[in-house]
Amino acid sequence: MTDSSTFSSADSDLYRRLIDSVRDYAIIALDADGAVTVWNPGAQRFTQFAANEAAGRPFSSFFAAEDRASGKPESLLLAAVRDSRADDEVWLSRKDGSSFCAHITLAALRDSIGAFVGFTIVVRDLTARRQADEALQESEQRFRLIVQSIKDYGIFMLDPLGYIVSWNPGAERLKGYTADEIIGKHFSIFYPQEDLDTRKPERELQVASKVGRFEDEGWRLRKDGTRFWANVIITALHDEAGNLVGFAKVTRDLTERRAAQIQALADMRRVTESDMANRAKSEFLMAMSHELRTPLNAIGGYAELLSLGLGGGVTDRQREYLDRIRRSQKHLMALINDILNFSRIEGGQIKYEVTEISLAEMLASVVPMIEPQASAKNLGVTLHEADDVIACADPGKVEQILINLLSNSVKYTEVGGRIDISYALVDGRAQIRVTDTGIGIPEDKLGAIFEPFVQVGRSLTRPTEGTGLGLAISRDLARAMGGDLTAESAIGEGAIFTLTLPGG
Asked: Lesser CB count within 10 Å: N end or C end of the chain?
């Protein structure tokens, strides 16, 4: 079916093999009336018609009904005769009735004397490209919808010179301009004067053009002139040939985050300075305590030696003075020990050996320690026995807390008063309560009694000895073991101190 009368036998064979080898294009020849004379395998693949089925049929019969009705086949053939060539995108029909989009190029054929003899046609199936174009259009549409729906980011496009060509609702919310107000303006309108003076907007586009992307944080301006701290990303856009076609710009308001970071840094700086001050204070207290202990130990030792008469005879009056010296020395040593303990707690130098403790056994050993002091003031001390309670804590630290609480009760309870000690398991936690009939503490001062170096309430009616560290140390020890120390009181009604510890 290949008409090769104008070719030699060798040329005709080469021509036929060339045409038959093409699979990705339909190559077709028509006679002067538009009927098919050549139909290569590519044409068969596109249309599903074999060569013998297509031979002699008018080429217009392969057009989709809509294009046939519009006269497109005849128009293309006439244009090819008139201009020697014509091309267009058309819809062609397959054998199964389906249609496909194709790019068709027609060329008029003439013999050696210029007489018109037919047409050559090259057809390219555009189905895949059209599907890709449709997918791209759908993707672009989805992208536009996404961009238009974003409210927390300003997303807009610039032309190669930096003039705004698109504007999303997020940009309007962030900067205050509507699309009508801002499109066509140069993006430098968002920069404060100090940035304009250094040509920062131009430099940002230059960097983005050179490396593909630019990111920055800095002050930007809203329509009303107010400033906000922005994170800005500028991305250069290029066409398939690599030519710069514009920039995509994304702006995010970081004003609140920056303020939070500044506040966090300030807080960190204050904490660091506070830690340094506390460390320096603790180190000073420890050094001072050690320095004072040495001469005080010497004072106590020499007073004891003099009392024993190792330096010669001692009169009764002198012995009385020596007893006062020893009592004062012991009192000062107790104060220094409190200061040293407090500095160790603040410095995190206290170790805790937590184990199970029987509260009944603990109290049975501690209460007798304060009975001599209580007897001297004719105080009644009662330990109320109950079912044993097990606590998880450091025995030595619990003993220290209890001795401090009982000593305070003895100190602040008037002659003839009472001290009651009880223990129980409450909501799975071990509790010890020390109740006295002392002078009490004002209700508004209850919180302050646990502050270091503070003595309130009970000391209002009489001068007392001490550093004001005992309760502060006791509460810190209790809390470090997972418990707490609280107080209830009122002036003239005594006080109740409750030590709470984890239950065993």
From this structure: N
Single out the residue in 103, 131, 159 at which a domain terminates.
131
The domain tally of the chain equals 4
> How far is 494 from 479, CA to CA, in rounded Å?
24
Give the integer Cα–Cα distance in Å for 4 and 114: 18
Q: Are 92 and 62 in contact (CB under 8 A)?
A: yes
Q: Checking phi first, is residue 468 left (phi over 0); if not, alpha (psi -120 to 50) or beta? A: left
Domain boundary residue among 96, 131, 166? 131
Q: Are residues 200 and 232 in the same domain?
A: yes
Kind and range of the H or E run holding 429: strand 429-436
The fraction of the chain above a pLDDT of 70, given in percent, is 79
What DSSP string runs through 104-151? EEEEEEE-TT--EEEEEEEEEE-HHHHHHHHHHHHHHHHHHHHHHH--
- What's at 475, amino acid-wise? R
For residue 283, is it within any domain? yes
Strands 99-110 and 116-125: antiparallel
What secondary structure, in 3-state letters, does 373-393 show? HHHHCCCEEEECCCCCCEEEE
pLDDT tens digits along 292-322: 666 777 777 777 777 777 667 778 888 788 8
Tell whether 462 and 360 lie within a shared domain. Answer: yes
- Angle 405-406-409 (CA atoms, 0-180°, nearest 5)? 90
H-only helix segments in 422-497: 470-480
For residue 178, name the pLDDT band (cuts at 50, 70, 90). very high
Rounded distance, CA 491 to CA 503, Å?
Answer: 33
β-strand pairing of 418-426 with 380-383: parallel
Beta-sheet pairing, 244-253 with 153-158: antiparallel
Residue 2: per-residue pLDDT? 42
Tokens of 197: 């003076």
Place of tokens 């009122």: 490
Token readout for 41 is 């395998």
Q: What is the pTM of this model?
A: 0.40
Q: What is the extent of the structural domain holding 225? A: 150-253
Burial (CB count <10 Å: 0-12, 13-18, 19+), residue 481: buried
Sign (positive or negative) of CA dihedral 437, 439, 445, 451:
negative
